[in-house]
Every structure is written in C-alpha cells, then in structure tokens.
Specification:
mainly alpha, globular, two-stranded antiparallel ribbon
C-alpha cells in the first residue's frame, strides 16, 4: 500500500499547484464546452475519497454534509467558491490523505458496503476503494489539465 499512498500524494501535490498558480477567479471559471471548473474538480476529489473509503466503511467523514451535497457525483458548480471555501478545500486536500494513511495503518477499515462505480468496477473493500480512488483522481486531473488551457 505504500506505493498506493505515494501515488495519492503525487496527485494531491499536482492538485495543490492549482491553488498556487491560479487566481480564485480562474479556479471558478467554467470554460465554454465544460460543465465544471478547476475548484469543483478539486472539491469533488476530496469529497469522493471520503465517500468511497469512509462512508462505505461506515466511518465518520472529515467533510460536512453541505460539502458532500455541493461536490458529490452528479453535481456541478452552482455559484462561485469563496476564498474561505477554497482555503478549506486546500487544507482538506492533504489532511484527508494524511488521516487516510494513518487510519489504514491503524487497521480501522474493517467493514465495507460493496459499491458499483459508474465505470462498472465494483468496490468490495476499503483497500479496493483507496486504489480505485487514485484512478478516479487521475481522471479528474486529466479533465483539469484540459480546463486550465481555457482559464
């Protein structure tokens, strides 16, 4: 699992660079032809990791219900994200990953509710969810690499 967590850290560092290299206005911009923006993708990544690993394991999540409602699968940006919201997402980017690695090493993931993903892959364990989550984050990083050309 060490490699899996290192892949996750690499992806999260890539995501963090968007906070460093783009203004809040750029993070919020939805380019023509896209249904979301850079900051929505980052919020979605944070929320999805929490849902796939923690909620389906029956454990408390680090994200609020309001954040889940705003960034879960099937949502899109309804209004611009404030600087305070962007700061919270940025903080959660690494806090959620650090907690996940600690919790995994402490063996807290015992139960898991199977979940069929929209790709057709069925998650059967927290380990499978952690590994699948890296794939999911990679998909969204790819989308963000397209969006950034137009902001």
């Amino acid at each position: 699992m060490q490699d899996t967590f290192e892949v996750a850290r690499t992806g999260r560092r890539m995501l963090n660079s968007y906070f460093e290299n783009y203004t809040l206005e750029q993070l919020n911009k939805i380019p023509d032809g896209f249904s979301n923006n850079l900051i929505w993708n980052i919020g979605h990544i944070v929320v999805t990791q929490q849902l796939l690993v923690y909620k389906l394991s029956g454990l408390p999540m680090m994200v609020s219900d309001a954040m889940v409602e705003k960034y879960r699968k099937g949502t899109k940006p309804e209004q611009d994200v404030t600087q305070a919201e962007a700061d919270e997402i940025k903080e959660l980017l690494f806090d959620t990953l650090h907690k996940l690695e600690t919790d995994y090493n402490n063996g807290i993931f015992v139960n898991y509710q199977e979940y069929p993903t929209s790709t057709g892959y069925i998650l059967k364990s927290a380990v499978g969810a952690i590994e699948f989550n890296n794939f999911h984050e990679g998909l969204h990083i790819g989308i963000m690499m397209s969006i950034r050309k137009f902001v």
